[in-house]
Specification:
Elements (H helix, E strand, L loop, with lengths): L1 H38 L3 H7 L22 H6 L11 E2 L3 E2 L1 H13 L7 H4 L4 E3 L9 E4 L8 E7 L2 E4 L8 E4 L3 H6 E6 L10
Antiparallel strand pairs: 1-2, 3-8, 4-5, 4-8, 5-6, 6-7
Amino acid sequence: MKLVLCASAVALAGCATQPRQTADANSNHLLRDSYLLSTQSDPLGAWLDSKDQLAIDYPQSDAPSNQIPKTMAATALKFLGVKYRYGGDAPGEGFDCSGLVAYAAEKSLGLKLPRTASSQAQEGISIDRSELRRGDLVFFNTLGRRFSHVGIYLGNHQFVHAPRTGAAIRVESMDMAYWRKRYNGARRLKPQPQTAQR
């Protein structure tokens, strides 16, 4: 009889804790759902925004003294998965390669770049591949002419770009045979100096 009473007590104790576990699980789900709801349009972009390591694309001495700059790389990465659109240069309509670069440069550095990849290849300063830093522009010959495609260098031989019709903005390796064969230069942009407000 004592054995039956002990077993019943253990079973009831287990039942008594069950609603609490469910409540804890529900609470965890609510927290997770709240987070996902606030970031679901771009969880990677939200994560990248929270990382201080992406705050600077160029030496501190080049940065405006009155603020920590946003970066071209972080700005472009917010649009991962957005569909390519020829002539597109805004988030709501999609981007082509030079449209993505022009948008990221304006939003992060305050620069108004020309609209085509070949014209963007004339901006900033030319740099060697061995000198690449996150935020530099990398150019490729994809249409049988120099500087026909552009992306933004991320570091570790990776770049973000809007590849082609039917694809979406993505990160790829410059070490892939296709890109290695077509690489034809890089440029480094300088941020627009902040105008003093008095």
